[in-house]
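Collaboration report, partner site 2.

Our partner group contributed sequences for two proteins of shared interest, and the home lab folded both. The records are reproduced in the order in which they were received, starting with the first partner submission.
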Amino acid sequence: MLISLGNLFWMTCAAFLTLSIFSFLYRDNPFYRFAEHLIVGVSAGYWIAILYHTSLTDLWIEPLGASIAAFGAPQGTFLGKIWMLIVNIAPGALGILMFSRFFEKTSWISRWPIAFTVGIGSGLALTASFQGYLLPQVSDTLRPLVNANNIVVFVGVIATLFYFYFSKEHKGALGTVSRVGIVFIMVAFGASFGYTVMARISLLIGRFYFLLHDWLPIIR
């Protein structure tokens, strides 16, 4: 198989980093630490670049420039243009105020933009959780009990809720239902753990396939 020198170099780098990470199975060593620090550093740099282009540029710099340029356009009222300018300046001002945390005398100022951001984030997350997670699950739970799947879902939800009812001792009928809830909880945890392990095994197989099928035959 013909391959360019550049591709061979990068494939060898990928193989070296993969083997460096695998070397931790023996013990901690400089190769593993180098690969670990490189991955963390590259990931941090990559996300900074992504956030610069997708958040800072797209969501602040370009809208701010457009609102400033709007003053030279005949469309729109003067008050409307002022309002748009303020709306586009405010996010940047809040972001800049967060950096006051690095200075001892002005660190208290950073509490305001952080509190503002956390409050908005909490409100949006709460609404999204209700509309995208809680309400759809409640709707799916209240389906007509016309088949086995709907019955299992309904029984599992009710039994699990009874398991987390701690205002009364779990004895008698309540204890029986709670034990059924434990079964459903363990099945859910087991399925989630199994799915996670399968995903990691899939990644491991992919790395071995790369080493044995793609890289090793080239360097022979």
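Second partner submission, folded after the first:
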Amino acid sequence: MSGHSKWSTIKHKKGALDAKRGRMFTRLIREITIAARAGGGDASGNPRLRTAISAAKEANMPADNITRAIKKGTGELEGQTLEEVTYEGYGSGGVAIIVETVTDNKNRTLPEIRHIFSKHGGNLGASNSVAWMFEKKGYIVVETPSMPEDQLLEVALEAGADDLKQDGSSFEIYTPTESFEQVKESLKAKGVTITASEIAMTPKNTVRAEGPAARKVLNLIETLEEHDDVQHVWANFDIDESEIEAS
């Protein structure tokens, strides 16, 4: 893969984008619950909840599941006491990694995340040790769009996007978080098929990873994402597609 590659794009190319439907639903439900708890159950006034509900609908989650998750967040229904905890660290070759978790017991989660880092040649760092290398943005992937690149760029920019970059046959569109949903809807209205989209911690700069170091990083991130408490993993590596196929 030429240039920088976001993990969500890599997962898509590997065919491993939340392959387990039940696990995907668990993550989405947790995000809806946390979003409702933080900003209220009215999606019209809660952008994070609105984005979470949109993702759940795109995954064909039943409406009843969405409603229950919101009510658990607002306290209308009893549920687990969930807490958001973010961990930061480094993988092989100095690749910076951010791990976002939702847990009912951070005293259990911390040593387990630390063990995963250590097992795969990485190490946990202190709070804010790598977060400064990233910025939160909307991230949208389009494969082989139904319009020329300049037209795709025009549609995206008019809807509020910041930038568009080509990565092989894919186009990566970046947006401010507040215009993320608007850009998605504008693209869909023009018949553009979106293959991946999320609010992402995007790296300001990337670190080249090759050979054994690249495979160690990919294995570390995959193992982190398999952990039940992990919602998202972000990293700042630059990696070739050949390394992905070899991992």
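Feedback sent to the partner group on the second submission included the following. The CA atoms of residues 51 and 181 lie 7 Å apart. DSSP finds nine helices and ten strands in the chain.
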